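Co-fold these.
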Amino acid sequence: MTNNTNTYTATSREADFVRLLEDNKARIMRLCKAYTSSREDREDLFQEIAVQLWKALPSFRGEASVSTWMYRIALNVSLRFSYETKRPKPSKERITWIEETTPHPHDDATRERIEQLQRCIASLPEVERSIMILYLEECSYKEISEITGLTETNVGAKISRIKDKLLGCMQKSEGGV
Amino acid sequence: MSNQEQTNQEDLKNFKQLWQQSTTNQSIKLKEREMLREIQYDMDSFDEKYGFGTTKQLILSGVISVLMIIVSIKQTNPMFKAIFLLLSVLHPAHFLFQLWTRFEKRRYDVLDSVGFYEYSLERVKRQMLWMKLSAGFLFGGLATIFAGFWDELSTDKTYYTFFALAMIVGVGYMAWQYRYRLMPLHNRLHDALFDIRNPYSSQNDEQH
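Predicted complex below.
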Protein backbone atom coordinates (compact mmCIF):
# COMPACT_ATOMS: atom_id res chain seq x y z
CA MET A 1 0.00 0.00 0.00
CA THR A 2 1.63 3.23 -1.08
CA ASN A 3 1.74 6.14 1.31
CA ASN A 4 2.99 8.76 -1.08
CA THR A 5 0.05 11.11 -1.43
CA ASN A 6 1.40 12.62 -4.63
CA THR A 7 1.38 9.31 -6.44
CA TYR A 8 -1.63 7.93 -4.63
CA THR A 9 -4.07 7.99 -7.48
CA ALA A 10 -7.75 7.26 -7.29
CA THR A 11 -7.18 3.98 -9.12
CA SER A 12 -4.52 2.66 -6.76
CA ARG A 13 -6.57 3.81 -3.79
CA GLU A 14 -9.56 1.93 -5.13
CA ALA A 15 -7.48 -1.19 -5.80
CA ASP A 16 -6.05 -1.07 -2.26
CA PHE A 17 -9.48 -0.55 -0.81
CA VAL A 18 -11.11 -3.39 -2.72
CA ARG A 19 -8.27 -5.73 -1.76
CA LEU A 20 -8.44 -4.69 1.89
CA LEU A 21 -12.17 -5.20 1.97
CA GLU A 22 -12.03 -8.50 0.11
CA ASP A 23 -9.34 -9.86 2.42
CA ASN A 24 -11.02 -8.73 5.60
CA LYS A 25 -14.72 -8.79 4.87
CA ALA A 26 -15.38 -11.82 7.08
CA ARG A 27 -13.44 -10.31 9.99
CA ILE A 28 -15.36 -7.07 9.66
CA MET A 29 -18.63 -8.94 9.41
CA ARG A 30 -17.90 -10.99 12.55
CA LEU A 31 -17.21 -7.75 14.35
CA CYS A 32 -20.44 -6.25 13.03
CA LYS A 33 -22.37 -9.25 14.29
CA ALA A 34 -20.99 -8.74 17.78
CA TYR A 35 -22.23 -5.15 17.88
CA THR A 36 -25.60 -5.37 16.20
CA SER A 37 -28.74 -7.38 16.65
CA SER A 38 -30.47 -7.09 13.30
CA ARG A 39 -29.43 -7.72 9.75
CA GLU A 40 -30.18 -4.15 8.71
CA ASP A 41 -27.97 -2.75 11.46
CA ARG A 42 -25.25 -5.24 10.57
CA GLU A 43 -25.26 -4.12 6.96
CA ASP A 44 -25.32 -0.47 7.97
CA LEU A 45 -22.42 -0.96 10.34
CA PHE A 46 -20.45 -2.89 7.72
CA GLN A 47 -21.06 -0.08 5.30
CA GLU A 48 -20.01 2.60 7.75
CA ILE A 49 -16.83 0.73 8.55
CA ALA A 50 -16.14 0.42 4.82
CA VAL A 51 -16.78 4.14 4.29
CA GLN A 52 -14.49 5.02 7.17
CA LEU A 53 -11.74 2.70 5.92
CA TRP A 54 -12.05 4.26 2.48
CA LYS A 55 -11.70 7.74 3.91
CA ALA A 56 -8.79 6.79 6.15
CA LEU A 57 -6.87 4.84 3.53
CA PRO A 58 -4.76 7.74 2.19
CA SER A 59 -3.61 8.56 5.72
CA PHE A 60 -2.45 5.00 6.44
CA ARG A 61 1.29 5.36 6.95
CA GLY A 62 2.23 1.77 7.55
CA GLU A 63 3.30 2.48 11.13
CA ALA A 64 1.04 -0.33 12.34
CA SER A 65 0.14 -3.47 10.42
CA VAL A 66 -2.83 -3.21 8.07
CA SER A 67 -4.92 -5.49 10.29
CA THR A 68 -4.15 -3.45 13.43
CA TRP A 69 -5.05 -0.25 11.61
CA MET A 70 -8.20 -1.79 10.20
CA TYR A 71 -9.36 -3.21 13.54
CA ARG A 72 -8.74 0.11 15.25
CA ILE A 73 -11.00 1.89 12.80
CA ALA A 74 -13.58 -0.89 12.70
CA LEU A 75 -13.80 -1.09 16.48
CA ASN A 76 -14.12 2.67 16.89
CA VAL A 77 -16.92 2.79 14.33
CA SER A 78 -18.63 -0.22 15.93
CA LEU A 79 -18.48 1.25 19.42
CA ARG A 80 -19.79 4.54 18.17
CA PHE A 81 -22.50 2.75 16.22
CA SER A 82 -23.63 0.81 19.27
CA TYR A 83 -23.78 3.97 21.41
CA GLU A 84 -25.86 5.86 18.88
CA THR A 85 -29.11 4.06 19.42
CA LYS A 86 -31.16 7.04 18.29
CA ARG A 87 -29.38 7.58 15.02
CA PRO A 88 -31.67 7.89 11.99
CA LYS A 89 -32.19 4.69 10.09
CA PRO A 90 -30.50 4.79 6.71
CA SER A 91 -32.86 4.16 3.87
CA LYS A 92 -33.23 0.74 2.37
CA GLU A 93 -32.66 2.24 -1.02
CA ARG A 94 -29.00 2.56 -0.25
CA ILE A 95 -27.07 0.24 -2.47
CA THR A 96 -25.99 -2.66 -0.33
CA TRP A 97 -22.33 -3.33 0.18
CA ILE A 98 -22.68 -6.87 1.32
CA GLU A 99 -24.67 -9.97 0.76
CA GLU A 100 -24.23 -12.89 3.06
CA THR A 101 -24.92 -15.90 0.91
CA THR A 102 -24.49 -18.74 3.38
CA PRO A 103 -24.04 -17.33 6.84
CA HIS A 104 -23.58 -20.63 8.65
CA PRO A 105 -22.69 -23.47 6.32
CA HIS A 106 -22.56 -25.92 9.19
CA ASP A 107 -24.54 -28.69 10.77
CA ASP A 108 -27.25 -27.85 13.32
CA ALA A 109 -25.08 -28.52 16.38
CA THR A 110 -22.23 -26.32 15.16
CA ARG A 111 -24.65 -23.61 14.15
CA GLU A 112 -26.20 -23.74 17.62
CA ARG A 113 -22.77 -23.47 19.27
CA ILE A 114 -21.85 -20.52 17.04
CA GLU A 115 -25.04 -18.74 17.98
CA GLN A 116 -24.41 -19.42 21.68
CA LEU A 117 -20.91 -18.04 21.33
CA GLN A 118 -22.21 -14.95 19.55
CA ARG A 119 -24.84 -14.43 22.25
CA CYS A 120 -22.24 -14.78 25.01
CA ILE A 121 -19.92 -12.32 23.29
CA ALA A 122 -22.77 -9.89 22.72
CA SER A 123 -23.59 -10.03 26.45
CA LEU A 124 -20.12 -8.82 27.42
CA PRO A 125 -19.60 -5.11 28.21
CA GLU A 126 -18.31 -3.05 25.26
CA VAL A 127 -14.62 -2.99 26.11
CA GLU A 128 -14.49 -6.65 27.11
CA ARG A 129 -16.36 -7.55 23.94
CA SER A 130 -13.80 -5.69 21.82
CA ILE A 131 -10.91 -7.43 23.55
CA MET A 132 -12.54 -10.86 23.27
CA ILE A 133 -13.28 -10.39 19.58
CA LEU A 134 -9.65 -9.47 18.93
CA TYR A 135 -8.53 -12.47 20.97
CA LEU A 136 -10.78 -14.79 18.97
CA GLU A 137 -9.46 -13.22 15.78
CA GLU A 138 -6.00 -14.46 16.84
CA CYS A 139 -4.60 -10.99 17.49
CA SER A 140 -1.54 -10.99 19.75
CA TYR A 141 -1.59 -9.16 23.10
CA LYS A 142 0.67 -6.54 21.52
CA GLU A 143 -1.77 -5.99 18.65
CA ILE A 144 -4.74 -5.85 21.04
CA SER A 145 -2.85 -3.32 23.10
CA GLU A 146 -2.14 -1.19 20.00
CA ILE A 147 -5.73 -1.36 18.85
CA THR A 148 -7.44 -0.68 22.17
CA GLY A 149 -4.86 1.63 23.69
CA LEU A 150 -4.57 -0.53 26.82
CA THR A 151 -1.21 -1.71 28.11
CA GLU A 152 -0.18 -5.28 27.29
CA THR A 153 -0.27 -6.21 30.99
CA ASN A 154 -3.75 -4.84 31.29
CA VAL A 155 -4.82 -6.70 28.16
CA GLY A 156 -3.42 -9.96 29.59
CA ALA A 157 -5.24 -9.48 32.89
CA LYS A 158 -8.49 -8.56 31.17
CA ILE A 159 -8.32 -11.48 28.75
CA SER A 160 -7.85 -13.89 31.59
CA ARG A 161 -11.00 -12.55 33.30
CA ILE A 162 -13.02 -12.41 30.09
CA LYS A 163 -12.07 -15.98 29.18
CA ASP A 164 -13.54 -17.13 32.49
CA LYS A 165 -16.70 -15.15 31.85
CA LEU A 166 -17.02 -16.56 28.35
CA LEU A 167 -16.43 -20.13 29.49
CA GLY A 168 -18.96 -19.65 32.27
CA CYS A 169 -21.52 -18.21 29.86
CA MET A 170 -21.01 -21.02 27.35
CA GLN A 171 -21.23 -23.72 30.02
CA LYS A 172 -24.37 -22.11 31.39
CA SER A 173 -25.90 -21.97 27.90
CA GLU A 174 -24.98 -25.56 27.16
CA GLY A 175 -26.29 -26.64 30.54
CA GLY A 176 -29.52 -24.82 29.85
CA VAL A 177 -30.03 -26.41 26.42
CA MET B 1 -1.68 -27.73 34.09
CA SER B 2 -4.74 -29.25 35.75
CA ASN B 3 -7.34 -31.20 33.81
CA GLN B 4 -9.80 -28.35 34.21
CA GLU B 5 -7.33 -25.81 32.80
CA GLN B 6 -6.54 -28.11 29.91
CA THR B 7 -10.26 -28.50 29.13
CA ASN B 8 -10.69 -24.73 29.29
CA GLN B 9 -7.78 -24.24 26.91
CA GLU B 10 -9.32 -26.68 24.47
CA ASP B 11 -12.68 -24.98 24.81
CA LEU B 12 -11.13 -21.61 24.05
CA LYS B 13 -9.31 -23.05 21.05
CA ASN B 14 -12.62 -24.46 19.92
CA PHE B 15 -14.29 -21.07 20.42
CA LYS B 16 -11.68 -19.46 18.19
CA GLN B 17 -12.43 -21.99 15.47
CA LEU B 18 -16.17 -21.56 15.87
CA TRP B 19 -15.84 -17.80 15.82
CA GLN B 20 -13.81 -17.81 12.64
CA GLN B 21 -16.12 -20.33 11.01
CA SER B 22 -19.17 -18.21 11.81
CA THR B 23 -18.48 -15.99 8.82
CA THR B 24 -15.96 -16.65 6.11
CA ASN B 25 -14.79 -14.61 3.17
CA GLN B 26 -16.53 -17.12 0.91
CA SER B 27 -19.88 -16.51 2.55
CA ILE B 28 -19.77 -12.78 1.93
CA LYS B 29 -20.23 -11.14 -1.38
CA LEU B 30 -19.37 -7.51 -1.72
CA LYS B 31 -21.58 -5.37 -3.84
CA GLU B 32 -20.52 -2.14 -5.35
CA ARG B 33 -21.91 1.06 -4.05
CA GLU B 34 -21.19 3.23 -7.02
CA MET B 35 -23.12 6.29 -5.98
CA LEU B 36 -21.22 6.90 -2.77
CA ARG B 37 -17.87 5.98 -4.24
CA GLU B 38 -18.30 8.24 -7.23
CA ILE B 39 -19.23 11.15 -5.04
CA GLN B 40 -16.31 10.43 -2.80
CA TYR B 41 -14.00 10.67 -5.81
CA ASP B 42 -15.65 13.95 -6.71
CA MET B 43 -15.26 15.25 -3.18
CA ASP B 44 -11.62 14.17 -3.18
CA SER B 45 -10.95 16.19 -6.31
CA PHE B 46 -13.01 19.03 -4.83
CA ASP B 47 -10.70 18.94 -1.81
CA GLU B 48 -7.67 18.88 -4.07
CA LYS B 49 -8.86 21.92 -5.96
CA TYR B 50 -10.48 24.07 -3.30
CA GLY B 51 -9.48 22.43 -0.06
CA PHE B 52 -7.44 24.02 2.63
CA GLY B 53 -3.77 23.34 2.89
CA THR B 54 -2.67 21.77 -0.39
CA THR B 55 0.88 22.86 -1.24
CA LYS B 56 -0.12 24.03 -4.72
CA GLN B 57 -2.91 26.20 -3.32
CA LEU B 58 -0.72 27.63 -0.59
CA ILE B 59 2.06 28.56 -3.03
CA LEU B 60 -0.41 30.09 -5.47
CA SER B 61 -2.05 32.04 -2.68
CA GLY B 62 1.29 33.28 -1.38
CA VAL B 63 2.56 34.33 -4.80
CA ILE B 64 -0.65 36.18 -5.70
CA SER B 65 -0.77 37.93 -2.34
CA VAL B 66 2.84 39.08 -2.56
CA LEU B 67 2.34 40.30 -6.15
CA MET B 68 -0.75 42.24 -5.16
CA ILE B 69 1.04 43.84 -2.21
CA ILE B 70 3.93 44.90 -4.49
CA VAL B 71 1.51 46.34 -7.04
CA SER B 72 -0.34 48.10 -4.25
CA ILE B 73 2.85 49.71 -2.96
CA LYS B 74 3.57 51.00 -6.48
CA GLN B 75 0.21 52.80 -6.66
CA THR B 76 -0.11 56.48 -5.94
CA ASN B 77 -3.88 56.63 -6.25
CA PRO B 78 -5.45 55.68 -2.87
CA MET B 79 -8.44 53.96 -4.53
CA PHE B 80 -6.13 51.68 -6.51
CA LYS B 81 -4.00 51.08 -3.46
CA ALA B 82 -7.12 49.90 -1.63
CA ILE B 83 -8.23 47.63 -4.50
CA PHE B 84 -4.86 45.91 -4.72
CA LEU B 85 -4.61 45.53 -0.97
CA LEU B 86 -8.03 43.92 -0.92
CA LEU B 87 -6.96 41.60 -3.75
CA SER B 88 -3.88 40.63 -1.76
CA VAL B 89 -6.05 39.35 1.09
CA LEU B 90 -8.55 37.62 -1.18
CA HIS B 91 -6.65 34.33 -1.38
CA PRO B 92 -5.68 34.10 2.27
CA ALA B 93 -9.29 34.92 3.07
CA HIS B 94 -10.33 32.01 0.91
CA PHE B 95 -8.20 29.71 3.01
CA LEU B 96 -9.71 31.04 6.20
CA PHE B 97 -13.10 30.50 4.65
CA GLN B 98 -12.20 26.88 3.87
CA LEU B 99 -10.78 26.40 7.34
CA TRP B 100 -13.96 27.65 8.90
CA THR B 101 -15.96 25.28 6.68
CA ARG B 102 -13.75 22.40 7.84
CA PHE B 103 -14.37 23.29 11.46
CA GLU B 104 -18.06 23.05 10.77
CA LYS B 105 -17.51 19.33 10.08
CA ARG B 106 -18.07 18.57 13.75
CA ARG B 107 -21.70 19.50 13.28
CA TYR B 108 -22.17 16.58 10.92
CA ASP B 109 -21.93 12.86 11.43
CA VAL B 110 -19.87 12.11 8.37
CA LEU B 111 -19.75 8.41 9.19
CA ASP B 112 -23.38 8.28 8.27
CA SER B 113 -24.20 8.61 4.58
CA VAL B 114 -26.77 11.34 5.20
CA GLY B 115 -24.27 13.31 7.26
CA PHE B 116 -21.58 12.82 4.66
CA TYR B 117 -23.82 14.09 1.86
CA GLU B 118 -25.08 17.00 3.96
CA TYR B 119 -21.58 18.07 4.88
CA SER B 120 -20.33 17.71 1.30
CA LEU B 121 -23.29 19.66 -0.03
CA GLU B 122 -22.73 22.42 2.49
CA ARG B 123 -19.07 22.69 1.48
CA VAL B 124 -19.94 22.86 -2.20
CA LYS B 125 -22.60 25.51 -1.52
CA ARG B 126 -20.12 27.62 0.42
CA GLN B 127 -17.54 27.28 -2.32
CA MET B 128 -20.16 28.43 -4.81
CA LEU B 129 -20.93 31.42 -2.62
CA TRP B 130 -17.23 32.20 -2.41
CA MET B 131 -16.89 31.96 -6.18
CA LYS B 132 -19.71 34.46 -6.59
CA LEU B 133 -18.18 36.85 -4.06
CA SER B 134 -14.68 36.62 -5.55
CA ALA B 135 -15.89 36.92 -9.13
CA GLY B 136 -18.07 39.86 -8.11
CA PHE B 137 -15.14 41.52 -6.44
CA LEU B 138 -12.85 40.98 -9.42
CA PHE B 139 -15.55 42.23 -11.72
CA GLY B 140 -15.95 45.31 -9.52
CA GLY B 141 -12.21 45.95 -9.72
CA LEU B 142 -12.34 45.58 -13.45
CA ALA B 143 -15.24 48.00 -13.76
CA THR B 144 -13.38 50.49 -11.59
CA ILE B 145 -10.32 50.33 -13.84
CA PHE B 146 -12.34 50.92 -16.98
CA ALA B 147 -14.86 53.38 -15.63
CA GLY B 148 -13.01 55.64 -13.27
CA PHE B 149 -9.33 55.59 -13.75
CA TRP B 150 -8.59 54.74 -17.35
CA ASP B 151 -7.59 58.28 -18.27
CA GLU B 152 -5.25 58.53 -15.32
CA LEU B 153 -3.50 55.40 -16.48
CA SER B 154 -2.60 56.65 -19.92
CA THR B 155 1.06 56.70 -18.98
CA ASP B 156 1.18 52.96 -18.31
CA LYS B 157 -1.62 51.53 -20.43
CA THR B 158 0.15 48.30 -21.36
CA TYR B 159 0.65 47.38 -17.73
CA TYR B 160 -2.99 48.00 -16.80
CA THR B 161 -4.32 46.38 -19.97
CA PHE B 162 -2.42 43.25 -19.01
CA PHE B 163 -3.77 43.50 -15.49
CA ALA B 164 -7.35 44.00 -16.71
CA LEU B 165 -6.99 41.00 -19.04
CA ALA B 166 -5.76 38.88 -16.14
CA MET B 167 -8.84 39.90 -14.19
CA ILE B 168 -11.11 39.05 -17.13
CA VAL B 169 -9.50 35.61 -17.41
CA GLY B 170 -9.91 35.16 -13.64
CA VAL B 171 -13.61 36.02 -13.75
CA GLY B 172 -14.10 33.74 -16.79
CA TYR B 173 -12.31 30.87 -15.07
CA MET B 174 -14.44 31.26 -11.97
CA ALA B 175 -17.62 31.38 -14.01
CA TRP B 176 -16.55 28.22 -15.85
CA GLN B 177 -15.69 26.42 -12.61
CA TYR B 178 -19.00 27.50 -11.15
CA ARG B 179 -21.08 26.38 -14.09
CA TYR B 180 -19.29 23.20 -15.17
CA ARG B 181 -17.70 21.89 -11.96
CA LEU B 182 -19.54 23.12 -8.91
CA MET B 183 -23.10 23.19 -10.23
CA PRO B 184 -23.07 19.54 -11.43
CA LEU B 185 -21.48 18.39 -8.15
CA HIS B 186 -24.03 20.39 -6.19
CA ASN B 187 -26.88 18.86 -8.20
CA ARG B 188 -25.58 15.31 -7.79
CA LEU B 189 -25.14 15.72 -4.04
CA HIS B 190 -28.57 17.28 -3.79
CA ASP B 191 -30.15 14.40 -5.72
CA ALA B 192 -28.26 11.77 -3.70
CA LEU B 193 -29.41 13.36 -0.46
CA PHE B 194 -32.96 13.52 -1.73
CA ASP B 195 -32.85 9.83 -2.75
CA ILE B 196 -31.52 8.80 0.63
CA ARG B 197 -34.16 10.79 2.49
CA ASN B 198 -36.98 9.70 0.22
CA PRO B 199 -36.25 6.05 -0.45
CA TYR B 200 -39.47 5.32 -2.26
CA SER B 201 -39.61 8.37 -4.50
CA SER B 202 -37.74 6.72 -7.39
CA GLN B 203 -40.03 3.67 -7.20
CA ASN B 204 -43.02 5.99 -7.18
CA ASP B 205 -41.64 7.85 -10.17
CA GLU B 206 -41.24 4.61 -12.05
CA GLN B 207 -44.79 3.58 -11.25
CA HIS B 208 -46.21 6.87 -12.47
